[in-house]
Structures are given as C-alpha cells and as structure tokens.
Specification:
By secondary structure, the protein is of the alpha+beta class. Helix 17 packs parallel to helix 20.
Amino acid sequence: MVAVLSAIIMFGSISLIYNAFSISISERTKQFGLLKSVGATKKQIMGSVLFEAFVLSAVGIPLGILLGITGIGITFTFAKDLFTALWNSGTNAQLVLRISPVSLLVAAALGVVTVLISAAIPARRAARISAMDAIRQTEDIKIKAGKVKTSRITYKLFGFNGMLAAKNFKRNKRKYRATVISLFMSVVLFISASSFTNYLMTSTSQLFGEATYDISYTLTPDQQTDEESVRELLTSIEGVRDSSYEYSEMGGGILVPEDLVDENYRKLLGSSWMEDAVGATEGEKLLDMHLIFLDDASFTKLLEDNRLGVEEYTDTDRPKALVYTQGKIFNPEDSRYYTYDALKEGSFSAIGMAFKELEGAYFTGEVREDQLVYRDDNQEEVLLPREEGIITQELELGAIIKELPMMAVNSMGTDIKVIYPFSARTAVLGVEEEVPVNLYFHVEDHKAAYEDMSLLLKEEKLSYSRLTDHGAFQEQDRAMVSVINIFSYGFIILISLIAAANVFNTISTNIHLRRREFAMLKTVGMTQRGFRQMMTYESTLYGLKGIIYGIPVAVGVTYLIYRSISNGMDFAFYMPMKPVAIAIGSVFLVVFASSIYAMDKIRKDNPMDALKNENI
C-alpha cells in the first residue's frame, strides 16, 4: 500500500517538475545557443540545468518538509479524539507528534531524486541542440509542407479562428504534447487516487461490520423474571429507540435438497464430517444452522418489512421460518474472504439435526459400524446407536430475507440463520423449558443509557454484569474508518493540487511564450472576440485529448490498484464513476481558467513591444 501511494505521488511530482523544466528550457533555448557559441560544452549545459534543479531542491524540499510536518501536526490536533477512540483502553494516552530523522532523510532523498529525474530529460535535450539551431530556435517549431493543413470541416464548423487553433497544434507539437500530457497525467492521477480511496473504504467496510444495536443484556433463567418484564424495565430509560430479544441455538445442522444449495457456496464449504455422521444420502446437503427465536413483535415487523403474511408464518401448529443465507467465509487455501449466499431459493421443508448430549460425555465425531462414538471424562468410549444419538426435527422454511433484525450474529461463518417467532419455540423444539434470552437495545447515547440501565438492574437486584456496551466497540470501528477517510481525502487533495498546478503551469506558460505570436495576430486585425474563440477551441481540444487518453489508462491503473488492495478480500472490480465525472469537469474548468488567466495578463500588451522582445 505504501508502495502504491509513493508511486502515485512520485508520478505526479515528476510530471509537474518535468513540465516546468521542459517549458523553462524551451523558453531559454536561445540563451543556451549563445552559451554554446562562446564555448560552452554539452556537459556544461547539462550540468547548469541539473545544478539549477539542485538549488531549487535545496529551497523547495526543506520548505515542503516543514509544511508537511505542520500539516500533519494540525491534522493530529483536530483528530486527536478519533485517535483516542481507536485505543479505547481506559488510559490517558495522548497522541504526540514525533519526527523521525530517518523518515525526513528518506523524504528528502526521494525529493532530490524526483527533481533530478525530472530535470535530466529536458537537460539532455537542450545539450544536444546545436548552437545555430538554438539561436534560430528552429527546434521549437518545425513545419513541413502539408503538415499544418487542416480540413475544410474544421473551417466550416469553427471558422477562421478555430482553423488557426488547429494549425497551432500541428506546427507546435512539442508544446501541444506537453499540455496534453499534463492533462493526461492529471486525469490518471486524480482517478487513480480516488479509486485507491474507494477500494480502501470498501475493504475496510468488509472488515468492520456495523452492528444494529448499541447495548445487549443476557437474561438467565436463575434470575426469576421474564424477558418482557426486563425489556419493559430497560426501555423505560430516556433515549431508547428500539429493542428486541431472542433465544439462539447453534451447533446443529439442517439437511436440505442439494440442488437448492448455491454452487459457489458448495465449493467453499466442501464436504462435512457431519454429513457422514448423520448418514446424508445422495441429493442431500447438510448445512450449519443458527436457529433463532425472535420476539413476536420484532418477528411481525420483519414480516411486514418483507411484505409477507403474518398468519402464514405464525401458525401455532406449523410455524414457518424466515431464512437468512448470506455471510462470509475465510478460505485458508488462498487466504481470501468470500461472501456467499447459501441457498438459491426458500419456501421448502427441511430437517434439523443435532447430536444428543450425554451427561459426562462428548461426541468425538467418529461413526463406527453405525454407532456414534462418545468419550466420557475418563476418556472411555461410549457407543450410541445412530438412530438414538441423532435428534431430528422437521422445519418449515419460508422466504429468504436480505436484512437481519436487531440481534447478534456472526457474519464470519458457514451457517444459515433460521428465524422463528419466540412463541413457536415449544412447537419447534418439542420441549418447554426456561432458556437464556439475549435482549438488544438501540439508543441515542450509549454511554448514558449503559449507566442508567446498570442503575435500574441494581435497583431491581438483577445481575448487571451481563449488560454490555457495544457502542463503545463500534466507536473504535467508526474512528478507524474516520481516520482512513481523513488521510484518504487528504491524499486526494494533495494529488488534486499537484495535478491542477501541473496543468495551470503548463497552459499559462505556453500562452505566455506565444506573446509575440499573439502580437502579430493583433497587427493583422484579429479582435479580442477572435482571440477568445481561438483559445476556446484550443482549450476544448486540450481537454478532450487529455480525457480521451487519460481515462483508459486510469482504468488500467485502477485495475492494478484493485488487484493490490483486494488481495484477501472478496469484492468485484468496479470503476468509481463519481471521480471520473469530477475529473472530466475539473479538466475543462482548469483548462479554461488557465487560458483565461494567461490571456488576461497579455490582453493589454502593446503589439510592437511584444514583437521587439526576443527574450519571450
């Protein structure tokens, strides 16, 4: 990741500095020719340009380091609460800015290398030009017969001024290419940086799941009260927005028709030892099951949200379950996370299966001659016939839902969630007994609500050790996302400034170097309106060329970023369209703004003074 960031920043920096030196050397071509005419060698010319680059580095790099330290210091000052929330350890830890001399030296060395690389290419080009060609400036503009010819369509569509703009591109290809390359690189940099941020946020959101509740409480059977009473008690405090409760059973399986199981899920799941243990036949697939009994009010709301009939699912004689089949699996073979949707469709009958629990013994998972092998506390084998050791229950499964209710679930696992109303517990399980119930609360202020709930539980002489403030843990996750956002958008702003400065510098300097040309056009009668039309056409062509070349390359770079960041995560390649739209709009905005600024500066030039000035 550090390599990707460094590569993008160096790419933008080299582009900016290269264009600056290229334009500067182009402007001083005649000066280099005069130096050569009085005996300056190629080595001296190149050394002069590189020395100039080194002097600029000696000023710019320390200033950049100082501004960088100041910027990160300001960021830490304003974001200190977020960083403190990341640790959430109950200590008085403080975020202190410490400057590493090694990091400063590495940054300075990268800066010097970037500048020298950027300056070396135009320096070598300047050193190769002969003295006479440099004085005459024949290398700057080369015109061959027929090369500047424009089509009649251009003249008909854009008139004489548009034709002049088109001819300028053809006669001055070096400066034209420099401008287009600046725009091209700006588009690539901005879209690549934005894509990097988008993919980073996507991978982060996969790791940090957002819980739908803030506080949970586990009510055990020994507390001599029922779940509805505790729910009413804890929702009486101020700031409770929603609540629910449920009882869960895990560790069992559900036998379903194999043709209803998603093929990708089947590949990820592989074969299960439980299938052999329960004696699954061909055409059947045993899936891990999380059996949930949700309070009736929340279950009814869930049915209404999914536009399902309440009577169909709450029939006391034959209740029907809602099914949630999505989740994540970590595949150790390729060290990647995969999202899955276990079932293709719902609404079918299935068989729930679990292994009988023996007092003082545990099931080993081994089946020997149609008998289940248990071991007791002394590691002695206890054999139980398969038909006695496997508990089965008929389950009627209904529709598949896409969102879970407010409750605790493990998103990392292979189980499917089978949800019944709480009142159907006895009908489904076949037994009536007191069970531990988990209650969940969504509140406005988790800290205040946690304190108030603790006091209420103490007053009612109920255990408060099972009350958990999940909002505190969620604050950690949100703080991590916020910190990533701060640095990501800071990175985008940095890249955007580099790109905008690159384009502005290139276009405005190129226009400045054409002052004599513009003065000549004024002397032959071109009006201000004509100049505006010509520059509008040039700016439009610059923008279109930069976008046409930049976007395909940006797509390629984005794909490489995707391959780098998605390693271990499961999400498909996508092209963030918002940054693409912003890049297109920004290109034309910067191009036109640069042209207007530069033209405004030379608008009041006296044509005769500009024509006499040979240093332009």
